Amino acid sequence: MALERTLSIIKPDAVKKNVIGEILSRFEKAGLKIVAAKMKQLTKEEAEGFYAVHKERGFFNDLVAFMISGPVMIQALEGEGAVLKNRDLMGATNPKEAAPGTIRADFADSIDANAVHGSDSLENAANEIKYFFNDSDVVSH
Ligand code: RTP
Ligand code: MG
């Protein structure tokens, strides 16, 4: 497996529940390192741009409204096979279908308020990290 970086967002529902630390701890315990991080209140334009791939979908407006409903925590994670590893830790998009012990099974309330975002491919990960971080904001350790 190769060393990869992926973008993770702790969504407004999980920030409101005060479980940022519990979620970050799961990444660290799985061997993923936090190599960039910030709290941010997304603007409507930032959320629309980030999820632009979904703009023709029926859920797009609800998704954008949810993502700007409160601050998020955005982090770049680094580790062996980081993209898939993060998706495995997250669980299925719909928490009702998420495997026990995954972040969404434990912290998400619904398919809309589903606690975390994670890049779905290495290529998207690189673009998503660039969307939120300058090269100099990402460290190695
Ligand atoms: P994310 O991008 O946030 O990590 O979520 P994902 O890959 O698991 O799911 P994706 O298909 O990329 O969808 C992005 C977000 O849109 C909402 N969604 N709602 N009502 C629906 O059928 C539906 N499908 C997707 C979810 O909140 C999902 O996280
Ligand atoms: Mg997605």
Short description:
The chain has helices spanning about 10-15, 20-30, 45-50, 60-65, 80-90, 105, 120-130; strands at about 5-10, 35-40, 70-80, 115-120. With about 140 residues, the chain is α+β, with helices and mostly antiparallel strands.
Structural class: alpha+beta
Question: How many β-strands, per DSSP?
Answer: 4
Question: What's the shape?
Answer: globular
Give the end-to-end Cα distance, rounded to a whole number of Å. Answer: 19 Å
In the residues, how many domains can be counted? 1
- CATH hierarchy: architecture: 2-Layer Sandwich
Radius of gyration using CA atoms only: 14 Å
Average pLDDT rating: 98
CATH C-level name:
Alpha Beta
Describe the protein in words.
Helices cover 39% and strands 20% of the residues. The protein has 141 residues and is α+β, with helices and mostly antiparallel strands. It has one domain: Nucleoside diphosphate kinase-like domain (Alpha-Beta Plaits, 2-Layer Sandwich). The protein has a four-stranded antiparallel sheet. The two termini are 19 Å apart. The mean pLDDT is 98. The site of ribavirin triphosphate has 10 residues, from strand 4. Its EC number is 2.7.4.6. It is an enzyme of class 2 (transferase). Its cofactor is Mg(2+). It catalyses: a 2'-deoxyribonucleoside 5'-diphosphate + ATP = a 2'-deoxyribonucleoside 5'-triphosphate + ADP; a ribonucleoside 5'-diphosphate + ATP = a ribonucleoside 5'-triphosphate + ADP.
